[in-house]
Amino acid sequence: MGNCNSSSRQTLTAKMSHIPFERDNNGNTSQELEFQRDDDLRLLRIHNDHFFYMKNLRTKKKGNVLINMVGKKNTFEMELWFFGRIDQVRSSEFLLHPVNIQGSFLVRNSEREEMDYTLVVKNYCYKQDKFEILKYKINFNNGKFFVSTKQKFESLPDLINAFQEGIQRGIACQLTTPCQIVRDANIGLVAINRWELPRNEIEFGRKIGSGHFGTVHMGVWRGSVAVAIKALKSDSDLVKEMKAFFEEIRILQSINHPNLVQIYGVCTDNHPFLMITELLDHGDLLNLLRSDEEHSLFDF
Fold first, then answer.
1. What percent of the chain has pLDDT over 70?
2. Binding site: which residues?
3. Overall pTM > 0.70
4. How many independent structural domains does the chain possess?
5. From the annotation, which residues make up the binding site for ATP?
6. Start and end of every Protein kinase domain (predicted)?
């Protein structure tokens, strides 16, 4: 997003729609700005490390906007993974929050050169038994973007897409989801729409399970990521099941360990509600232990 300190009054575009809660976790009236995707927002000042103070040119209202919700129109700054000019300390703090899973990442401007970029990735270090933050310089030479000279791309989004598909060289792990920002204690948590995924990004495959709550399907997210899709029945009388469904979402969002199933997002804009999670190759543990593969798990 460039150096905002020297770019006051610049106009940026909303990457997503956002409807703030009326009040924050402390009961105070929300100071956040409401906007729709592709709204033009004028930067008035930098509010703090998390927010810009902006004016919605469509509604004429003013308020705070999370820094990664806006970018320059028709550029890769509109990608959810682009965070602009934030420093390495802040980017590490964002990624280390438990809401971000293994392989979560962001791209930021270099602190030295505005046109240089850094890929910042959250990776689990088994040797130290903890998450670490890895930083990779994204090089640009002869019209190509690259981390490793053995793998070059026409654009920065092409590089990121390949790394999300597991086609990467020069980095420690496959990229998963763009970094989620969680606000500080005085502001409260990001609303659930930070986890909302467009339904057109989800492709259903064969059914692999069912129950009173609904069904589970294999599927594909964004054309390349294998996922499990849990679909809640749309029956209006399933109050308990709906509560359990959202409680499961809440729990999975709070869990952050590479050996536990990870949640990628939800679709709650319409029925049926969907939960999109990591696909377990062998199904759940109980079914795995009941399968023929149990003979290869134990060797006495």
1. 73
2. 230
3. no
4. 3
5. 230
6. 202-300
